[in-house]
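[step 3/7] inverse_fold.run input=structure_tokens len=148
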């Protein structure tokens, strides 16, 4: 299965959740226009696997893109199996590096508590190389030793 981006979202300066077909990633910052971008050097992006979102829906927890605060949903990659330092090539030119597993937060309360008891919630990443990424773009995983 080819790994792809299936959803992109961010929080605008007006605090509205924006779902987009295309976003621009800025190295050392995050998503252009995202009010949370650039505040933490290891947390530019919040990435969740589509399979996790699907599982939550099957388990009776209705989850819409962006509802958990994630900015990118990808399909075809087991994010929980990737160690810190793994790089993801998004689209033609963007490169992000996984910095830490994503943990729940008090803002999403019971939804995340129920989810994290059974499945990992995703990963946090920093943007190493910027570029425009779009829904449907390929995601490639690069470990230190090899490329998948």
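[step 3/7] decode complete -> sequence:
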């Amino acid at each position: 299965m080819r790994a792809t981006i299936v959803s992109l979202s961010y929080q605008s300066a007006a605090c509205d959740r924006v779902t987009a077909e295309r976003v621009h990633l800025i190295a050392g910052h995050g998503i252009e226009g995202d009010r949370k971008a650039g505040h933490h050097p290891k947390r530019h992006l919040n990435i969740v696997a589509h399979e996790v979102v699907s599982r939550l829906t099957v388990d009776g927890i209705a989850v819409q893109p962006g509802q958990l605060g994630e900015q990118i949903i990808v399909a075809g990659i087991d994010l929980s199996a990737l160690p810190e330092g793994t790089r993801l090539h998004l689209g033609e030119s963007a490169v992000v590096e996984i910095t830490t597993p994503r943990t729940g937060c008090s803002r999403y309360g019971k939804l995340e508590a129920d989810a994290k008891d059974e499945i990992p919630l995703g990963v946090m990443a920093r943007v190493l190389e910027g570029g425009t990424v779009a829904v449907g773009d390929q995601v490639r995983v690069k470990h230190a030793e090899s490329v998948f």
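[step 4/7] annotate
The first helix runs from residue 50 to 58.
Confidence is low (pLDDT under 50) at residues 107-113.
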